[in-house]
Amino acid sequence: MSNIIDLKKGLNIPIGGAAALEAKKTIVPDVVAIKPTDFKGFSPRLLVKEGDKVLAGSPVLADKQHPDILVTSPVSGTVSEVVRGEKRKLLAVLVKADGSNE
After folding, report:
1. What are the angstrom distances between the C-alpha of 8 and each of 3, 22, 47?
2. In the predicted model, what is the mean pLDDT of residues 58-77?
3. Would you tell me which of 37, 48, 71, 96 could form a disulfide with 80, CB atoms 3.0–4.6 Å apart?
4. Taking the domains of the chain in order of start, what are their residue ranges?
């Protein structure tokens, strides 16, 4: 059975000043590495090849046991290299950014 906690009073922390109105520019690296080892319990299946063009948000890896779980590319660009280790274990997928981020 779940307990519902109702807070009657809160804590106001006085912070001086106002929020900045300008947005910070992000720095996009030239090459981005997507590493399957960053995801615990994820057995990767490669969906792209070297030389393929990818858009930001397009799938790059899928899980073998659960194909609906995808890892997407954070940047638009070209897959420059697929790094494999011992026994052809997938270590990283390198994407060379083209700067458009479509």
Report:
1. 16, 36, 51
2. 95
3. 96
4. 31-97
**Lateral strand order in the sheet of 90-97:** 31-34, 90-97, 77-84, 53-54
CA distance 82 to 94: 6
The pLDDT of residue 64 is above 80: yes
Res. 63: pLDDT tops 80? yes
Q: Which amino acid is at 60?
A: V
Q: Retrieve residue 28's tokens.
A: 């996009």
pLDDT tens track for 4-14:
777 778 777 77
How would you class 95 by CB atoms within 10 Å of its CB: exposed for 0-12, middle for 13-18, buried for 19 or more?
buried
The conformation of residue 38, written as its DSSP 8-state character, comes to G
